[in-house]
Amino acid sequence: MKRVVITRSNPIDPDSRVEKEANSLKKMGNEVYLVVWDRASNHKMKKDLKQLENYKVKRISFGAKATYGAGIKSIIPYLKFQINLFMWLIKNKRKYDICHFCDFDTAFLGSLACFWTNKKYIFDIFDYLSTDAKTIKEKIIEKLENNIINRAETTIICSEQRKTQIKKSRPKSLVVIHNTPSNIPVLKENLSKKEKVKIAYIGILQDFRLLKEMVEIVSKMKNVELHIGGFGKYEDYMRNAARQYSNIKFYGKLQYEETLRLENSCDLMTAIYDPSIGNHKYAAPNKFYEALFLGKPLIMVKETGMSDIVKSEDIGVLIEYSSEGFRDGVKSLINRRDEWEKMSDKMKKIYLEKYSWNEMEKRLQELYLRFDN
Questions:
Q1: Using CA atoms, how far apart are residues 258 and 164, in angstroms rounded to an integer?
Q2: How much is the pLDDT for 68?
Q3: Predicted confidence (pLDDT) at residue 315 exceeds the cutoff of 90
Q4: Which of 78, 205, 228, 271 lies in the 20 to 30 Å Cα band around 285?
Q5: Is residue 202 within 8 Å of 315, Cβ to Cβ?
Q6: Under a CB-based contact definition with an 8 Å cutoff, are residues 231 and 252 in contact?
């Protein structure tokens, strides 16, 4: 048994990747702690139990109020969380054996705490900050981030393409664990037989995802509905849009199983990112894998992460990053409605053969077994 601390810069409410990883580590018999940043309010350390798919684990939350996607405006709350995390790791060094840092924003001071306490750590990269670093600030962060990779016992990346993204680093060990859903049972949906076409977007409501543009386009399409779930910068905008337009539906924050059920009740899914942002070229969006799992044709932007698979396997449509691109993509997929069932079967097969969580869980557990040697 290992005592593992997983750190995340959100409250894990929800965070599907962290929840799956924690559940898989708990399944091995490990003791798991979640140490997280609660951005909803300012408060001192809080403790509770987080319900996972099969287990409950201890969660320690530090509250520093901040808005998702606010950039430099969140620097003070970010530093407060960093310091609280650092101090917790120092004070509680006898309670854990391994740290599992998710992204630079928990590994920055967390890895330093491990150095001081002589603890090993794993660096799990959801989003690599230093793609195409140009400014002095970006190059400093790149050096810091790569040093964290180089000192980690193992670095986890979420797609093979990201090996190119971190090419300036020298990881001791590298493991690919895709952002694929676990095998939660969902009801089978009959595609192409509904009166209205339902499109799903569930995720963080922030910039660079064409969210407002999607609402504007769908609001004018009588035969289409847009079903939106999530939280973040545009919550109020989405809530107001749902009041104004009968074909815009907003559900707010959803837990993982609720997300999959809502996506499964829709016909099409979106995984839309601005390709001008370097990190988006290597994105491994949850929505891509969830679409495969559920068999839902995808709307994606050209030259963003995993778009090459959508094109080569013909399991959706690739669009330009614009209102017009989204509108044309929706119309294109609606015109191919008779092919949705075929796409769906192919997507589910790809999931089972290449990306099933059973395989990803095995990789994660084998990684942790190395610490027995």
A1: 35
A2: 76
A3: yes
A4: 78
A5: no
A6: yes
Question: What Cα–Cα distance (Å) separates residue 204 from each residue in 125, 136, 207, 254, 372?
Answer: 18, 29, 9, 11, 37
CA distances from 178 to 125, 131, 217, 267, 287 (A): 11, 19, 32, 24, 12
The region of weakest confidence among 13-27, 186-200, 205-219, 348-362 is 186-200
Say how far apart CA 102 and CA 126 lie, in whole Å: 7
Residue 185: pLDDT band by 50, 70, 90 thresholds?
low
Query: What six digits make up the tokens of 334?
Result: 């609606």
Report the predicted TM-score, pTM, of the whole model to 2 decimal places. Answer: 0.90
Which whole-number Å values give the CA distances from 195 to 39, 222, 280, 343, in the listed order? 40, 11, 34, 20
Give the tokens for residue 308: 């090459």
Domains defined for the chain, CATH in brackets: 3-178+356-372 (3.40.50.2000), 197-355 (3.40.50.2000)
Q: To the nearest 10°, report the CA torsion of 319, 70, 215, 189.
A: 70
